[in-house]
Predict the 3D structure of the following.
Amino acid sequence: MAANTYIQSYKAVLLEIGSTSSGSKHQNVLAVLVAARARLVEDPRRLDEAVERLRSKAEPVDERVIAALRTLSVQDWMFLRDTTRYSLFLNASGSDAYAVVGLTEPIRKFSQGSGVLIKTGVVEFAGRFVCDGLVTRVVHVGAGIRKSLADAYREVKAVGRFHARPGA
């Protein structure tokens, strides 16, 4: 149930942000969501403005989702692989690794495989790092780079920079 709550509130907030941009009426929903997410990252005050407008229309927005959106990090992530419980993400600088879950399906399902660079958003929600599912770039890397990234992950983990859960 938490996944549905997140999806509905996230979509409502992004569509509200997207509704204030010119040309959004003529774009498909996914394009509006991605553009709105970029606008939110550019100016986080848009979150409070969108929530206020939604509430003025008596549209519910879950407080947990609002808190999660305050932690939104959109960047290029290296999606290393899926495990049975989560997906391994390495941030672009290679300094930190994260246990990230998809809301309704494994990351591999919408990233076109593992060992890829993907531009997507990650939030802290319900005690987990959660991928927002809006993937705007997928870059497949070669075997040599994948090996280097696996080595980088092992080093990051060895020095305690693997984050299994927010705040842990």
Summary: The first helix runs from residue 2 to 18. The chain has a mean pLDDT of 90. The longest strand covers residues 73-82. Helices lie at 2-18, 29-42, 45-56, 63-69, 107-111, 143-158.
